[in-house]
Design goal:
With about 150 residues, the chain is α+β, with helices and mostly antiparallel strands. About 40% of the residues lie in helices and about 15% in strands. The model has no long low-confidence stretch (mean pLDDT about 90).
Length: about 150
Amino acid sequence: MTTTELTEHIEHLIFLYEMPSRPAPAQQHGAACVWCAAPEPGVDLGGTSGWRPHGCESCYSRRRAWWETYLRWHGHVHRCPRCRSTQSCTVAHGYRVLHEDAASDAGRTAPSCIRCSQEIRAVQPIEPTISDGSAGMLYGYTHLGQCPPRRTR
């Protein structure tokens, strides 16, 4: 994927997955950021006639960084022979660290494994995964190998 294609793909993902479900009128018309409501619209997020959402540079760049690091990590993991054989890969680890930093900056909650629904801990080996869902693509994470046993209280 070229840089231009990646940029367009990320913009599309932000439009599909990052929009609030009930924005205020000023947010609907581009007069305020759709995420923080700051009156500094900045980035045009697309839309049609009465729906022209914008995001401030800060909110938009944090979401963009989250998607970009996720897609780059995913792309590496699924092309790298070492990752595919479930061996330790320093490049994949680097992508994960960058993605976790972007997730923190974007205010994301701790991720859960899409197979077992358990919260993923920083020390657990995981990989990003993209799969078909009933309402669209699912972007998530899975434990490498078998999921850990559920903890009992």
